[in-house]
Amino acid sequence: MELFYFLVFGAFAAVVAALELGKTSKDRLNTSSAFNAFKNNYILVYSLMMAGDWLQGPYVYYLYSQYGFGKGEIGQLFIAGFGSSMLFGTIVGSLADKQGRKRACVTYCIAYILSCITKHSPDYKVLMLGRLLGGIATSLLCSAFESWLVAEHNKRGFDQQWLSITFSKAIFLGNGLVAIVSGLFGNLLVGTLGFGPVSPFDAAACFLAIGMAIILSSWSENYGDSSENKDLLTQFKSAAVTIASDEKIALLGAIQSLFEGSMYTFVFLWTPALSPNDEDIPHGFIFATFMLASMMGSSIASRLLAHSSPKVESYMQIVFVISSASLLLPLITNFSVAPTGVQGGSISLLGCILVVGFSVFEACVGIFWPSMMKMRSQYIPEEARSTIMNFFRIPLNVFVCIVLYNVDGFPITIMFGMCSIFLFVAAVLQRRLMVIAETQKSKPQDWTALERVTEAEPLNISD
């Protein structure tokens, strides 16, 4: 079965290489040198920020277990992180619109560096503080950087379509290549060099500090609504009214919560799904394969976004349906493929099928990120961008906390089935979003045509 891992990894690597090397002038947008410098600066910072995040991920649970904490205590720490992101992160992230997006990005770096430092202590309260800081940092990572990018892009007068280039490249590198390299680097620090499970967190803090220095030296400040007379509560009310009054924004928030909630649930469940009988599986290599599949997805997205057709609202329906089918696979194979029942050993046939299916889901994740960023840049108003984006994360964090709390209460197959349903609902909502967007675009054209007819053939009231 070892050959299987190399075959899957090699297949995705070949597809990614073919997609990147096979791009023609039709798949690329002609841009200016000023934009390229701006784009490269942002991608460098974003990659450093993501390196700081990816280095920590594989070792958080392992570090807590090394400190002697049980599954229940570790679960509480994880729930605290998502709860902090939902509560404190929403408040701090929303301040970015008023206090400045650059300041919010610097705050992310400081909060996450402090969170990394707390990992040196085996004290449960100190680790809990670290999770609270990490939750705040996660909210800022998911809102402040994108908000700064969109505002700065527009402020500099760059073509709106060029945003998709920055989005897709940032995801290709930050959520793909950087994730793979970070995983290998973390394994080098902990395994090969024997620096211990805290060393990836120290390395993450260094990358975050470098990124913060670049932000402070090269980024300008931008704001959403910086009105002095608008306090945080008024800002929240204004964002809530905006979401409630614009169905497109409400649909976008629901779609994001459904997809990301399913994605985070998948992160918790893929390991036990692939090794139900404690099979010996190469977690690091499988993770690298997933990230390679995500890179493939972002590469596909960059091609799609470079063309005016198909519209992002259109092709994302297909992406959600495919992702729904891929997470339904554990439930289907549970009835169609006989389990081995043998403890230990190498990965089973069922596991091999799921690795391929999960890789397809990760490819959908790679398409989702730049495409969702593109839709958010189109529909979310600039003055409350960070606030609304953090509002979107509230139901997501509630959902993940509920899943974590009840993860032992339901069979894994049922959990995957639930995620599959959520993703199918996301496809239905995406369809609704496309219909609304097309209807609103056609209305002004119809009205203009009516005016032209009226001018050409004035009505004779006397008749």
From TrEMBL:
Subcellular location: Cell membrane
Chief site of localization: membrane
Pfam families: MFS_5
Signal peptide region: 1-18
InterPro entries assigned to the protein according to its UniProt record, in alphabetical order: MFS_trans_sf, MOT2/MFSD5
Recorded topology in the membrane: Multi-pass membrane protein
Membrane-spanning intervals of the chain: 42-64, 76-96, 172-195, 201-220, 249-273, 285-306, 318-335, 347-369, 390-406, 412-429
A single GO BP: monoatomic ion transport
Keywords: Cell membrane, Ion transport, Membrane, Signal, Transmembrane, Transmembrane helix, Transport
Tagged with keyword Ion transport: yes
A GO MF label: molybdate ion transmembrane transporter activity
Function in brief: Mediates high-affinity intracellular uptake of the rare oligo-element molybdenum.
Name listed for the protein in its UniProt record: Molybdate-anion transporter
